[in-house]
């Protein structure tokens, strides 16, 4: 309707005398007396009203004279009209295709005509992993920008003007935004241009500019001056256009002559007033525009005097560009000279410091041999690397030495620094504990706490793990408690805040990054083992352990283990112990989905399990992204992982020592079957990394006496850890052999020492199973295949997940800095990686040598027939006969399901889906689980299932079994992702399908063909693998305020 009003005014202006038309406009705006000079007032409100009316009137005149892009009004086509609309929309900001379609007017057929013009005026910028594809206006089209485009709203006008001024500043140009060159009116409307050169318009412009020149602030505004300058620019461009297209005698448009002549006798002509306002301080923002207008006056004067117009115009217009270029060159020269002086100053300082150092260490330089000063850098580097590799050992008596560093942390709440010490106040990190199926090998399997099995022994399927993630932000325990209490008080009074955080489960948002958290692991002074010593052989320690577990037999002194070295344990402050209890209770409650009970014997087990599972999850992410284990984590991520390991190691200090000892004895029974209990699982039913972490962190409890609190010495711990690691590694190698019987056949190969060791091991395993009738040729073939399997499929993740073990030992003991370990553990070749990791863990590079070095463990009298019991277990026999499903190694790395590239394939799949429980043919809302690929019927009463005593929808019930309560679903008909974290929390997320314009299409409203974006789907996979779904839901609910909560449990 607004466009039709403008059209009617243009028709009227073309039929009327311009002075008469302008007087009617002034009367309509009630400004006739104001510009006639017969109305004066000192009332501030009335002056403000007149100023606003003047601004509106000047804008209307700009629109009537300048808006000519209507077919029939001027010589333009519909395509030209659409191009101009698109250019002005993109001058506000780069826009997506859908935003452009919404901003363009539609024709009778409800079409915008965007497709035919968009490539002419804009370039397409492809989207990244987030956001939309954007169109950016081409530089050659920016000359058509009109700051007073009549389809702009007030906010769009401000944004467009600011954007274009910013662009011109970045291009080292002035901030002038002149009116564009308009198209010529058609002959019936050509008289409209007379509005710009009639006497009334000259009078109006003089009065406006005069008030600005007199600098009376209450009588004018900057917006008035800006509009007046734009009108003058329009008039000058029109006059220039006519002078260039026709001879001077035929041109009747004489705005420049009237602007110079009328009022010149008193120095109040438009041209004279422009020269005056150029120096007004309050009009500094319009200074560039005033200069441009004055230059246009000179150009038109040259055209009328028939001097060289083109030369004069080029010379005049090039002056500001040349001056700007000169300024830019001068500024660059000044900066270059300043930088040169700064470099000279720094070099002089460095030279002076070097001279002072040489003079103060003159004797050192005099005694330095030439081979060292000149030297061979390559040899020195290699020798240093060899020495570092020899010193980089984390396990056993040859463990390297690293001095303890003083650690000082800053509280993010009170900003006070504090040194981390055992007797100091506790420093806690924000963390989130959640159940996870990211690493599961048997989706849908549930783990229940029954007898002595789980959580003492984690099954190798890793069906459900407990993951603890931290953003790494540190607080004092007292500051955190005050913050948590404040969150509880404010959240209870907040509308729908229970959807974001669950107060009953102790959830809160990190004060700094707003990550969802539910616990606080404490940072304590780390336990360093730095003085390696020799101890007695391993059998003596095992005898002590055996006498401990069989105390009533009276064979050995139960206290014989204490003879290998003891020391006084490190005491923790009450504050640290309190925070350890808080974190351990949360891990136990979330992991086992049980009521809080800090006295439960499973509390330390769940702490060790979450430590092991978190390390496994991090290693899985880094392997998925093809990143090295060390050097890839950020400092805050590393700090969070370090706190989790230390928290798990401290569980033995606050738990019952009898419980810890019983747990260790049970775990040791897996490695030493002669000491096993009745329900001890076989090798094929245990995850050995969880077992390794639990045994390493619990073995110090064996040194506790009833009335004396003791812990092993450094040398005792060194040998304990060394032999535990060796036993676990050997057990896992046998586990791999027993569970992976499909080694690829190898035609021929060179028989090496490693091959012979592999053949010997394979023969021993075959001898104790039902595959004892193997010829030497077949045995050699299998041994070569086994060797290839280990090097190709398990390197550098060496069998037992040695990169996980590497991470655990490095964080637990901090033996070497990150950079050096990265260089050693991540060599150029896979063989070099394997050797470096084995060296760090005190393992032979040929892992089969472990069986030769410790062969007495399996044949000696102390632990007789352990190897036979490993292989002859009833569960192993069932597995070899195919009656028991086992996990194959290396484990399968889980990813989201493969989606079709074309979204129409999913729509076809959904069209054939019918709910198995529905009696009618209605297909409801087909929803695809991205974890397992199951098609579900969501938001339907036919598929309600009971869960914890409450009826829930199909997606909620499926997420409880498939993702341990976490779900990621694709609603096919709505084309959106649904993230779920519990029965009451969820959020929507953009689908990874984009159209040709790089945009998603929620609810398929636009109907454009959609194609899978691999980058966005990869980001969704990372969101799941990094356990960030809960955090994403919390952030989404924090941003989106809803009055009525969505019933996620019915999805």
UniProtKB/TrEMBL annotation:
Span list, region Disordered: 157-180, 308-337
Biased composition annotated in UniProt, kind: Low complexity: 308-317
Regions of compositional bias (Basic and acidic residues) in chain numbering: 158-174, 318-337
Name of the molecule in the record: E3 ubiquitin-protein ligase
Protein's pathway: Protein modification; protein ubiquitination
Keywords: Metal-binding, Transferase, Ubl conjugation pathway, Zinc, Zinc-finger
Membrane-spanning segments: none
Occurrences of domain E3 ubiquitin-protein ligase UBR-like C-terminal (ranges): 585-1026
Family listed: Belongs to the E3 ubiquitin-protein ligase UBR1-like family.
BP terms from Gene Ontology: protein ubiquitination; ubiquitin-dependent protein catabolic process via the N-end rule pathway
GO molecular function: ubiquitin protein ligase activity; zinc ion binding
Main enzyme class: transferase
Reactions performed catalytically: S-ubiquitinyl-[E2 ubiquitin-conjugating enzyme]-L-cysteine + [acceptor protein]-L-lysine = [E2 ubiquitin-conjugating enzyme]-L-cysteine + N(6)-ubiquitinyl-[acceptor protein]-L-lysine
This protein's GO CC annotations: cytoplasm; ubiquitin ligase complex
Domain E3 ubiquitin-protein ligase UBR1-like winged-helix: 82-177
EC number(s) stated in the UniProt entry for this protein: 2.3.2.27
Its job: Ubiquitin ligase protein which is a component of the N-end rule pathway. Recognizes and binds to proteins bearing specific N-terminal residues that are destabilizing according to the N-end rule, leading to their ubiquitination and subsequent degradation.
Pfam family, one: WHD_UBR1
Protein species of origin: Labrus bergylta (ballan wrasse)
